[in-house]
Amino acid sequence: MVAMEVVVVTETANLLDLAPKEAARILVQSADEAWIFELQRSLDRHRTRTDLDRILAAWNLRQSDAAELFHVSRQAIGKWRTQGVPKNQIEAFADLSIATDLLVRHLKRERIPAVVRRPSPRLGGLSLLDLLAAGQTREVLVACRNMFQFGDAHA
Question: Within 13 Å of residue 31, how many CA atoms lie on the same side as its CB?
Answer without folding.
Answer: 17
